[in-house]
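Worked example 3 (structure in, sequence out).
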């Protein structure tokens, strides 16, 4: 399987963002990662998840949602990481770009959001119901998507660590607002960053199973929807 990484610059929301693309051969879908809370495309946690997805035949795009100058500003103020509208516009623009990029054109698109990036991913999913096929949130803040949650009809998996009790409740409440299939998976013994042994590997497995199930032609047809929780 060919998994060579390609560095890209993607125009989005009047700026140009750095991204790393891996396209297995063959690829059955593509997953765009939406980072949050001061993270970037170099996040070792998301890169571990991306490798698991690549092994399952899914292309991955790890992109910075902020420019270098914006990252420096955010490091001082922490302000931009909570600008969900800004982050969502950029995730949406990159989703559109993938549809026109030859190696990923025609592939079903999934969004993987972490922390505040999960809210941005959900807003983008609401904005692109015909382009985005599924969403996964890791330790995310889906509640920050606000009223957009009601417009998210794509299958959505929310993954939260069992020790992250405040975020569990925020995810439970947000899940009630989602219009499509929604599932909450609570990883036993895991904290917010899933730093405990085996926790992040479990996140990667859950994400891989969700995306391989939903990122295929016709996977959303006949979906009965519903809300479920584990843990």
């Amino acid at each position: 399987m060919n998994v060579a990484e390609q560095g890209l610059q993607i125009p989005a929301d009047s700026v140009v963002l750095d991204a790393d693309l891996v396209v297995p051969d063959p690829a059955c879908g593509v997953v765009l990662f939406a980072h949050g809370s001061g993270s970037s495309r170099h996040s070792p946690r998301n890169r571990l998840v991306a490798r698991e997805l690549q092994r399952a035949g899914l292309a991955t795009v790890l992109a910075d949602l902020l420019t270098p100058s914006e990252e420096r500003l955010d490091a001082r103020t922490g302000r931009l990481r909570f600008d969900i509208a800004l982050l969502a516009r950029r995730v949406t623009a990159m989703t559109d770009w993938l549809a026109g990029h030859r190696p990923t054109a025609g592939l079903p698109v999934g969004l993987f959001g972490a922390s505040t990036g999960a809210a941005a991913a959900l807003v983008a999913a609401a904005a692109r119901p015909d382009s985005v096929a599924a969403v996964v949130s890791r330790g995310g803040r889906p509640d920050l998507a606000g009223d957009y949650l009601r417009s998210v009809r794509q299958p959505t998996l929310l993954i939260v660590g069992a020790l992250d009790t405040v975020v569990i409740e925020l995810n439970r409440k947000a899940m009630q607002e989602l219009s499509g299939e929604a599932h909450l998976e609570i990883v036993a013994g895991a904290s917010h960053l899933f730093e405990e042994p085996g926790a992040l590997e479990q996140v990667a497995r859950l994400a891989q199973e969700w995306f391989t199930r939903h990122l295929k032609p016709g996977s959303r047809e006949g979906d009965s929807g519903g809300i479920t929780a584990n843990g």
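Notes: The domain at 7-217 is CATH 3.40.50.1820 (Rossmann fold). Residues 219-224 have pLDDT under 50 and may be disordered.
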